[in-house]
Amino acid sequence: MRVIPHMHAFVSELSPEARQAFEELSVLRRVGKGEAVYRQGDKPNELYQLVEGRVRLCNYSLEGREVVSGEFQPGDCFGEMGLIDGLPRVSHAIASCDSAVRVLSRAGFDELTTRYPEVDRKIALMMCHRVRYLYALNEEASELTLHQRVARCVLRMAYSRDSNNPERELFIAISQEELGQMLGASRQSINKELKALVCEGIIELRYGRIYIQDLERLKDQYEYLLAGEPITPGYQQTT
To answer: What UniProt keywords apply to this chain's record, in alphabetical order (predicted)?
Structure first.
């Protein structure tokens, strides 16, 4: 699996001693599918690391439509911003399936950062990467077509949440509806653009999955559409 470092996971970047302290200071909490880890407006009293499952960040329009701003995978951390600035949660964090998170209280966070100053720098690095990512998304929304945005979103996910089946096929487990929620587009529009990528020979669609047929071609055609940084910064290959 390819993992873009520093985007969401800071605990894995810590020294062994600091990682051990994080585990000792935190507790495991299970969250059922559809349950909230926290809600918009909640007081920020905890930091979370996803252990298993998936958790999405979302908000809701006045019409009740869910708008997904991101989804966390195992190993990712979230909720740290509120512990730093003390302001209420700005989004909902909802379990997309039965999940488990490690929960670090504010007191535990303060103790961890006091004992291990490296934590502050790792969190700062993670937040810098997120800001760069948000700048890129804003630029894409204003300058690129939906087709280009879909292709780049697929490319990002291929470099951060891909999987392999026993046949070693590279795929992303996501529905077209979920992809539409991430890009603010209808499922029908997403389907049209994905089928165009199928015609290009870049992907193949199967139920609930996008199979990457030609990752290098996807990268070559859609990575450098903007003048900014590449969509896929240096990444680590894990087993």
So the answer is: DNA-binding, Transcription, Transcription regulation
